[in-house]
Amino acid sequence: MARYRPEKGPKQYWQEYKVPYRRDTVVLDALNQVKAEQDGTLAYRWSCRMGVCGSCGANINGVPRLTCETFLHDFKGQELVIEPLANFPVVKDLVVNFEDFMEKLVRVKPWIIRERESPVEEGEYKQSAAELERYSQYSSCINCMLCYAACPVYGLNEEWLGPAATALAYRYIEDSRDQGKKVRFPIVHDMKGIWECTLVGECSVVCPKGVDPMLAIQKTKILGAMEAPKSILNPQTLKAILPRGGQ
Amino acid sequence: MSAAARLHALLWGVFSLGGFIAAFLLPVLIYVNNIAYPLGLWPVTSRDPTSLIVTDQIIGSLFVFVTVAGSLFHGVFRFTATLGELGLKDHVERIVSVGYAVIAVGILALLYYLLTLNPGFVNMVLHLLGPR
Amino acid sequence: MSQKKEYPELPRKKLGPGWWLGNRHYTVYMVRELTSFFVAVFCILYIYQVVVLASAPGSYSQYLDLLRNPVMIGFSVVALGFTLFHAFTWFFLIGKVQPLKFWGWTSTPVQSLIINTVLLVAISLVIIDLFFMGR
């Protein structure tokens, strides 16, 4: 286990623990056993212990995983190396600072944006099963940040909007109730937005909920590529760039 | 979308189209010109494949132009991005500028020399445009 | 009330230039991306071939001799291999992003790869027949 205790020293160090093994033991059980019976100083995040809260992400043998869903029996005969999620600053032990991630989630305005809010008397916004199908996969994100830990583009450039935030933006772009394309497009189609992605695809490999952020990013790129010529041919844009205002 | 992002979106569209061209059209050109002809493999031609299909052959020249221009754009665009991921992130702007220069010079040279190899086509176009 | 102490965080670890050797998926990704180098180099060499043909026909036979050079043939075989690898990975990725849809049937990425590969072979044969057969 990678330990970092800033109150004790400035460097990360390794500490070995042995834990009792049962067939159904997950890594989170092992962490809890260590904290309860061997070393109470160990710091890590967890909550639901059933893969829905997204709290317990860590790098396990170099791969970002949820500790509550990673069974020890999958590593039988191997040494288990547990580190904090890659690409994030470390606060203590396995606890990372995820402020950058939270800022990016909020940046894409993850709520329904309407040009006009219908009054309650007009009833609910109706949506067919087919319309729901267009975005439901992307609404499964549990904000676990495994995709950010897996993404080498984010590792090389912290300014990249990132897989989860882009998938979330796409979720709202594809939602038939949403009318916020004009608001979200400049955010995702920024040079530090989707254009940084080079299709490594590791985000989709590690995602525990099958969101497939790589697919969301590519679909957003296609929307951008289709939108760009239209916005250039827009009469106002043409008027601004043609000599004498187009006359 | 900012102007830079709008332009990048358009270039990505061209890059994407270049990907299809490189996937479907480039392999046969590499095989026929660089492998089959020097080694005398099928399809055996009376002379080298390139002079066969571009000299006074507008359709062949068009095939060559689309294949090579599209593939060049795709290859250089992608390679410059890859160099950024191989530790040259701080020099990416310079690398990208050199990349676009290579693309522009390459495509313009290809277009110019293909046209010089098709004087009949060029004369026909000039004739259609009418006397000056 | 105790004083709250601020402790320094460990900054993000910098990814070195060899990051892609860290796991198999990353390595396959980088090999896929480096196919672009061979695509670009072949195109530049081919443009040069056209330039020599058009502007220096006297030197063209020297360029054709260069095509027969074992190093050039070796490069061409490698370039063809990488170009085909690029094509197959492209078909698979496109199959994920924009699957083929016909009469209610939607392709999987593997089916898209197979269909597009068959299309690649068909297009190549048509090009050979159109431009090179019996000429």
Taking the alpha carbons of the first and last residues of chain C, their distance comes to 94 Å
Quaternary organisation of the protein chains: heterotrimer
Shape of chain B: globular
What would the CATH topology of chain B be?
3 helical TM bundles of succinate and fumarate reductases
Structural shape of chain C: flat
What's the architecture of chain B, going by CATH? Up-down Bundle
- Tell me the Rg of chain C in angstroms: 24 Å
Beta-strand percentage of chain B?
under 5%
Q: How can the largest sheet of chain B be summarized?
A: none
Q: N-to-C SSE series of chain B?
A: HHHHHH
Gyration radius of chain B, rounded: 18 Å
Describe the structure.
The complex is a heterotrimer of chains A (247), B (132) and C (135). Chain A has 247 residues and is mainly α. Helix content of chain A is 36%, strand content 8%. Chain A has ten helices and seven strands. In chain A, β3 and β4 form a beta hairpin. In chain A, α2 packs parallel to α6 and α6 packs across α9. The relative contact order of chain A is 0.12. Chain B has one domain: Up-down Bundle (3 helical TM bundles of succinate and fumarate reductases). The model of chain B has no long low-confidence stretch (mean pLDDT 90). Chain B has 132 residues and is an all-alpha fold. Chain C is an all-alpha fold and 135 residues long. Chain C is built from four helices and two strands; from the N terminus they run αααββα. In chain C, α1 packs antiparallel against α2, α1 packs across α3 and α3 crosses α4. At the B-C interface, α1, α2, α3, α4 and α5 of B face α1, α2, α3 and α4 of C.
